[in-house]
Specification:
17% strand; binds 3-isopropylmalic acid; binds magnesium ion
């Protein structure tokens, strides 16, 4: 039987991941699930949030479902290490970013589609004075391993780095600053990775009938990195004459997405811009409770909701968080392994629940989260999953 590595991680990851497995079972998908540790507890206990054992399991089974992890800035993370491990040179790196890089899961797909009937859908004023709800159907392709996530960073860069920088005329204004007061984060793009994300985006657009691919970067300022993305996009486009190639700047895109989100289909961006655009589009279709994603490499693929771990909700009983993002991520896993019918059945079931509007978690009712939301009429996590399962046919 197929084995899938499950990494619930931290906080609400532990709540929503098991819910998605209930849906997979109900849709008739059979697999064996192998638990793997990842996240904050591993960091505090061992100084490593991404254990070698987890890496081994993914190497072996190739498919993963991931819940959520807590990530904190460097100093806070070090302070939470168990006392014996403090001041020993352990540095916290986000384990999901680590996984993406370790397995070269360089193609990140983040569909942001509105479900009719979702009270959280974006609404705008129409020219005639009323309001209208544009249908959002955007799929963000985020380069997932390089760019500003390369991890090439320094505060107080070493002499050799400063010297190398000094070979560039633009270093001049910084040359006399005390190095201790200089921080550098390097944005690295490589042609092969840029080509892969673009090829994945165009192939997806063609396969799923999107009429455009929009490259969303900032080539007027980031001439080299964004410039490379634009140049390679033109080359890749040649094999897809039926798909339009468009280009926007990240800042302008942030403005347009609330003016005319229905005009965008597939979008492609580097790592950080892709991170930003995917949250921004998610906001138009219900927020992070609806945002699913796939991190896809040549051999390994890991599927995850893009929300954080919201630790304060982990222990609420009954649980209140919306499992839909996790369930939709599990559906993406089904797509990835050729179970398109089952994936579609899961999405249709979610659509049915949302359309009917009888069962809504607190976020869908625009309530602030807390233990009182159930008494105020919000569905529990379990009730939402049950409703999705009841709509499978
Ligand atoms: C995401 C998240 C991560 C990222 C964080 C948790 C490191 O925001 O998956 O979008 O920045 O990639
Ligand atoms: Mg993000």
């Amino acid at each position: 039987m197929r084995k899938i590595v499950i990494m619930p991680g931290d906080g609400i990851g532990k709540v929503v991941l098991p819910e998605s497995l209930r849906v997979l079972e109900a849709v008739g998908f059979e697999a064996e699930y192998v638990h793997a540790d990842i996240g904050w507890e591993q960091w505090m206990e061992h100084g490593n949030p991404l254990p070698e054992k987890t890496i081994e399991l993914l190497k072996e089974h190739k498919l993963g479902l991931f819940g959520a992890i807590t990530s904190k800035p460097k100093k806070e993370a070090s302070d939470e290490l168990k006392p014996e491990l403090r001041d020993q040179g352990f540095t916290y790196y986000s384990p999901i970013v680590g996984l993406r890089q370790r397995f070269n899961l360089d193609v990140c797909i983040r569909p942001c589609r509105s479900f009719p009937g979702n009270p959280l859908n974006f609404i705008r004023k129409s020219a005639g004075g009323g309001s209208e709800e544009p249908e959002v159907d955007a799929v963000i392709f985020r380069q997932n391993t390089e760019g500003l996530y390369s991890g090439l960073e320094w505060t107080n860069p070493p002499e050799a780095v400063r010297q190398a920088m000094g070979t560039h005329p633009k270093w001049k204004p910084f040359a006399n600053t005390d190095p201790a007061d200089v921080a550098l984060s390097v944005r690295v793009f490589t042609r092969a990775a840029v080509r892969r994300i673009l090829e994945a985006a165009f192939a997806y657009a063609k396969q799923h009938g999107y009429d455009s691919v929009t490259v969303c970067e900032k080539p007027n300022v980031l001439r080299e990195t964004s410039g490379m993305m634009e140049a390679v996009a033109k080359e890749v486009h040649e094999a897809y004459p039926d798909v339009r190639l468009r280009s926007t700047n990240i800042d302008a895109q942030m403005m347009w997405l609330t003016k005319n989100p229905e005009d965008y289909g597939v979008l492609v961006a580097g790592n950080l811009f892709g991170d930003i655009i995917s949250d921004a589009f998610a906001g138009l279709v219900g927020g992070l409770g609806f945002a699913c994603s796939g991190n896809i490499g040549d051999e390994v693929a890991v599927f995850e909701p893009t929300h954080g771990s919201a630790p304060k909700y982990e222990t609420l009983d009954p649980p209140i968080v919306n499992p839909i993002a996790m369930v939709l991520s599990a559906a993406m896993l089904l797509d990835h392994i050729g179970e398109a019918d089952k994936a579609e059945a899961v999405r249709n079931a979610v659509a049915g629940v949302v359309r009917e509007g009888q069962v809504r978690t607190y976020d869908m009712l625009r309530m602030p989260g807390g233990p009182d939301v159930i008494a105020k009429g919000a569905a529990t996590t379990t009730q939402m999953t049950d409703a999705i399962i009841a709509h499978l046919d």
